Amino acid sequence: MVFAQKANLSFETTSHNFGFISEKAGKVAWEFKFKNTGKAPLILTNVRSGCGCTTPEWSRKPVAPGESGSVKVIYDPRNRPGAFIKSITVNSNASNPVVSLTVRGNVSRTPLGPYENYKYAVGPVKFTTDLINLGVVKNTRLEEKTIELVNTSKQPVTVQVNSLSPALSVRIAPGTLEKGQKGMLILQYDPGKKNDWGFVKEDIQVTVNGQKQGNIQLTAHIQEDFSVYEEHPENAPTAVFSEKEVMLEGLEKNTSYTHEFYIQNTGKSDLIIRKLKTSDENVSIKVIKSVIRPGKKVKALVTFKTGDNPEVIKIVQFTVNDPQASVITYKLTGILK
């Protein structure tokens, strides 16, 4: 019996520790040397790493029996402080067709510059952020927030902020910043004055030395404060829909339809429909009354237009003052002929 002769991939070592390396110093490299200890030419068919920060380079030509080659591994430490372990997989035609190489080390963080934490530039002034997210806020609670800013120029600058929203009050302290001086953007947000519910956003205009140069955005999710019903939840309103989902069949394409359903208040306080929101411009909702007395019900009319697709789905979102279900979703599905 004759056995096929094969190459054999033999590395001097399959792991390397770079030790401590500087993020600022840039890329580091290590060569894994190998020898073909078999009896046929050795071909590395593929060498791959599991991370874009690690790049392999290798001998592309066949390596004759008894000859040597190498796999060079380059690691980029930029923006990757801390310990790391990276694997490189070597595929070949050898009798040992898959070999795993490992590099490890620890990246020392580059010292931060004086303005490293100030990400948003408005002319010579830098803010720590251009987005202020207040998260979930109650309509009865005044929210306060501050963010830092710094003057990066060599001259004094005057910074002003302004918002057109009646719910938002903003100011800069101090208004004039000397070279390198830090200040604070101070805001107060009164959700009750917004007259809106759910996700909202506000723009804060930033003026430097009398010229408008940027915007900072504020976002929040306004929810109703139901603490008034904590002691007597039985006194709260309760929204009951005659249906929350409907399927209409046999519809014509590119045609408008109106479908009706009812909303009833089975609670003991007035049910108020705070906000109506539709999924797109081809659907609208009309509720005969926005305030529903206890024990009463009102008609709701959803009007929508079909298109060319065989199925249409329309969503209407109701925001109401029911503590148990302040947001109710209504779904309409239309099936065309």
Question: Helices, strands, pairings?
Answer:
Blueprint: E1 9-11, E2 15-22, E3 28-36, E4 44-49, E5 54-58, E6 68-75, E7 82-92, E8 98-108, E9 120-122, E10 125-127, E11 131-138, E12 143-151, E13 157-162, E14 168-173, E15 176-177, E16 182-189, E17 198-208, E18 211-223, E19 239-241, E20 245-251, E21 256-265, E22 271-278, E23 283-287, E24 291-292, E25 297-305, E26 311-320, E27 327-336
Parallel strand pairs: 2-8, 11-18, 20-27
Antiparallel strand pairs: 1-3, 3-6, 4-7, 5-6, 7-8, 9-10, 10-12, 12-16, 13-15, 13-17, 14-16, 17-18, 19-21, 21-25, 22-24, 22-26, 23-25, 26-27
What would the keywords be for this entry?
Immunoglobulin-like, 3 domains, 337 residues, 58% strand, five-stranded antiparallel sheet, five-stranded mixed sheet, mainly beta
Summarize the structure.
Helices cover 0% and strands 58% of the residues. With 337 residues, it is mainly β.
